[in-house]
């Protein structure tokens, strides 16, 4: 914006210089006219860059989940009784073919009968010993962690991801989402497993995955009390 304002005196001085004492139309030299046009284009480009930077600066970083030392714990129950702090939540679910313990940093009442959460640390039994195998974090309280038919769903604002567990490992199944340009344009994308992310021509896969997520069951955590 400052660059654009600086152009005004230049143009004004040209008009005054050619207008004094003459009535014929002033002709701006070609190189000066080009300089003015270049300056205007540069200022517009700078404004667009600043707008993009402002949008990027509003993106929130994912919150760091607490580290839980489960040494000495032989069961999920021992983790809950010995390691979790008041205010944390836990839930038993089945993801893939594994019975898992989901532990969240904090919960909130979603006003639909659930103590929901936007994050979860995932534990399963490996060789009979409870083991942390991964964690997930959603974008905010509008996207509580959900599970349906052995699939874990996580919403992140403009994308939805789903996970399962195979061979005691947390596995990314698919992610679909949309990116919005500064001009309001929409670009849809999709990634399956560990494959390359692909750009889509329409919102079909995004809508399909979003429908799966909103039809899934919100995980209802039990809150740890003192």
Overview of this protein structure:
The protein has helices spanning 2-19, 30-57, 76-83, 204-215; strands spanning 89-95, 98-104, 108-109, 115-116, 119-126, 129-137, 146-148, 151-155, 159-166, 169-180, 186-192, 198-200, 217-218, 222-223. With 226 residues, the chain is α+β, with helices and mostly antiparallel strands. The chain has two domains: 2-57, no CATH class; 76-223, no CATH class. The strands form three sheets. It has a seven-stranded antiparallel β-sheet, covered by helices on one side. α1 (2-19) runs antiparallel to α2 (30-57). The longest helix has 28 residues, at 30-57. The radius of gyration is 28 Å and the shape is elongated. The N and C termini lie far apart (57 Å). Residues 1-23 and 48-60 have low confidence and may be disordered.
